[in-house]
Design a protein that fits this description.
A six-stranded mixed beta sheet has the order 2-1-3-6-5-4, sandwiched between helices. 39% of the residues are buried. α3 packs across α4 and α5 packs antiparallel against α6. Helices cover 42% and strands 19% of the residues. It has six helices and six strands; from the N terminus they run βααβαβαβαββα.
């Protein structure tokens, strides 16, 4: 299935043009390589209401099944992406960030410091990735093979949960 996706970078410095956005383009390229069509990208500052506004607008438009965010998942007081994400979601999907943390901790014990969240709003899955391009890539690689199955179930397509994939 050719899923439609969006990528949102959350970064004060990238929003102000003080630092190039490396994470968003990397994630977009990974999605395209996996067969996704990236319909939109954007950059917002680390402001909870602005992040939530964009997530609501993109999900409510109904044309994307997956939104990946990058940035704002750490301990800094301005890292509010998980709060913004969970504030717009109807249902949390804790297994996705748990899997990303598990994969990250195999690389560095600092992986346990991630506060990434994931959830479903309407027919769209929203997943938070770290702001570091290296960490975002590693986290996305850890869950990308499973997202197709989750999106099939979310869209109402027949997805046999009991069948093992070769």
């Amino acid at each position: 299935m050719n899923w439609k996706a969006a990528v949102l970078t959350v970064s004060d410095r990238s929003f102000r043009g003080e630092r190039p956005d490396e994470g968003g383009p990397l994630i977009s390229a990974m999605l395209k390589d996996a067969g996704y069509e990236v319909l939109r990208t954007g950059i917002v500052p680390d402001e909870q209401e602005e992040i939530a506004r964009v997530l609501r607008a993109w999900t409510d438009a109904g044309d994307v099944r997956l939104i990946l965010t990058t940035g704002g998942t750490g301990f800094s007081p301005r890292d509010v992406t998980p709060e913004a994400t969970l504030s717009v979601c109807d249902r949390p999907t804790p297994g996705i960030p748990e899997a990303m943390r598990y994969a990250s901790m195999a690389i560095t014990p600092r992986g346990m410091l991630s506060r990434a969240a994931a959830g479903i709003r309407g027919g769209t899955l929203i997943v938070n990735l770290p702001g570091s391009p290296k960490a975002a890539k590693e986290n996305l690689e850890s869950v990308l093979p499973t997202l197709d199955h989750g999106l099939q179930m979310l869209s109402g397509e027949e997805a046999d949960c009991a069948k093992l994939k070769d």
